[in-house]
Amino acid sequence: MGRLDGKVIVLSAAAQGIGRATAIAFAKEGAQVTATDINGEKLKELDGIPGIKTMVVDVTKKDQVEALAKKHDRVDVLFNIAGFVHHGSILDCEEADWDFTMNVNVRSMYLMSKAFLPKMLANKSGNIINMASVASSIKGVVNRCVYSTSKAAVIGLTKSIAADFIDQGIRCNCVCPGTVDTPSLRGRIQAQPDPEQAYKDFMARQKTGRMCTAEEVAYLCVYLASDESAYVTGTEQIIDGGWSL
């Protein structure tokens, strides 16, 4: 028996990093997983894994989100992961940067939650997990102005959904990682003028001497998706190796 046997799970940003690791972990625990992403080529790498079906979906597009929801009669767990990291202070953040980041990091979760919540409410049972970050209302981080603002909004959205629907069988929690070793992070490091120094700067803030792995975040997400966390709602689940201490 898997920890997620019989559960139907939909998640975004599943082509790589935390999303990919979590989709695989969910499937290994017996869930029927719909893994979505805008990167169809990378998403294909999940094809053939038992328990996973893939769909190319842009979760910032209302029509695509609603079409995705219509393909599911029932959803037990919705995991909103899609996100973008902008580097810079408020002075480095143009209006286009602000709008793009808030659209990907917050509006996508609004659209997905609004589309799938009615199905959960009809079954009087549902579980929403949102990807936030320690860089948010939890901790001020240099050069993460709009990113931190967006992730603080995710925490607020999470608590709002949890409070509004707690008496209707709905749970909502968010995951707040620190620095996770993903292709996205590696790409951002390589994009810096001095990638070697950028890597050293990231490592210097790791109190455990290493970064978190995508799989470690996935283990936490399996717990939140399972009935083991049935009494957990409205929380920020911090997984940062002590960075926020």
TrEMBL record:
<dbReference type="GO" id="GO:0006629">
    <property type="term" value="P:lipid metabolic process"/>
</dbReference>
<comment type="pathway">
    <text>Amino-acid metabolism.</text>
</comment>
<dbReference type="InterPro" id="IPR051122">
    <property type="entry name" value="SDR_DHRS6-like"/>
</dbReference>
<keyword id="KW-0963">Cytoplasm</keyword>
<keyword id="KW-0560">Oxidoreductase</keyword>
<dbReference type="InterPro" id="IPR036291">
    <property type="entry name" value="NAD(P)-bd_dom_sf"/>
</dbReference>
<dbReference type="Pfam" id="PF13561">
    <property type="entry name" value="adh_short_C2"/>
</dbReference>
<dbReference type="GO" id="GO:0016617">
    <property type="term" value="F:4-oxoproline reductase activity"/>
</dbReference>
<comment type="similarity">
    <text>Belongs to the short-chain dehydrogenases/reductases (SDR) family.</text>
</comment>
<comment type="subunit">
    <text>Homotetramer.</text>
</comment>
<keyword id="KW-0520">NAD</keyword>
<comment type="pathway">
    <text>Siderophore biosynthesis.</text>
</comment>
<dbReference type="InterPro" id="IPR020904">
    <property type="entry name" value="Sc_DH/Rdtase_CS"/>
</dbReference>
<dbReference type="InterPro" id="IPR002347">
    <property type="entry name" value="SDR_fam"/>
</dbReference>
<dbReference type="GO" id="GO:0005737">
    <property type="term" value="C:cytoplasm"/>
</dbReference>
<dbReference type="GO" id="GO:0003858">
    <property type="term" value="F:3-hydroxybutyrate dehydrogenase activity"/>
</dbReference>
<keyword id="KW-0443">Lipid metabolism</keyword>
<dbReference type="GO" id="GO:0019290">
    <property type="term" value="P:siderophore biosynthetic process"/>
</dbReference>
<protein>
    <recommendedName>
        <fullName>Dehydrogenase/reductase SDR family member 6</fullName>
        <ecNumber>1.1.1.104</ecNumber>
        <ecNumber>1.1.1.30</ecNumber>
    </recommendedName>
</protein>
